[in-house]
């Protein structure tokens, strides 16, 4: 982003903030303190929308901002009764335009500096307490019945397994995500790792939330750009 664009984004943000109550602004800032892109979640071909939507709620509540959804055979639709509006505050990116959606997701995340971490009840490399967090983490979750695809398993940088002590083979995806994300984010919060949003990411996200919260935001923004175009 150029300095010119950044200047006008800040002015637009300042304008929108005037329409928020003090309580709303304080809530946004409190939530933003714990938002992170250091951990992201990837769901591959999930077909039970209630479980995947529960994962969105968990991501919101643990501060995970970005969720990647791979649609090879199954198209994911948010279940609003389960997600409870959490998708409004999150960034969802879908991979569904090629025959290589899984590979596209892996390549994009690796290019962004993420280590690919496959969750599996059968591959015991790391536990939630031992996974290295010095590098950004992309947690991959597979289908409830078959787990992750062979491609993810082959391309993963490492694996993580939640310890189990009963007869049942595995936790479902929503429980797995909750257990992993709670433990990993607590470890991040207590570490010297720079896991927080940058100032630019903070302001972009705050602006996005303002757009979703202020009535008539589209008209306000159009008037803002029309006025500033005349001044330019």
In CATH, the homologous superfamily of the largest domain goes by the name SPOUT methyltransferase, trefoil knot domain
Rg, please?
19 Å
Query: Which sequence of SSEs, written as H and E, runs from N to C?
Result: HHEHEHEHEEHEHHH
Mean pLDDT, as a whole number? 89
Report the structural category: alpha/beta
- How much of the sequence is in beta strands? 5-15%
CATH architecture of the largest domain: 3-Layer(aba) Sandwich
Give the total of beta strands: 6
**CATH classification class of the largest domain:** Alpha Beta
Assembly state:
single chain
Query: How many structural domains does the protein architecture include?
Result: 2
Biggest sheet descriptor: 6 strands, parallel
Distance between the termini: 18 Å
The largest sheet has its strands arranged as 3-2-1-5-4-6
At the fold tier of CATH, the topology name of the largest domain is: Alpha/beta knot
DSSP helical segment count: 9
Helix content: 40-55%
Apparent shape: globular
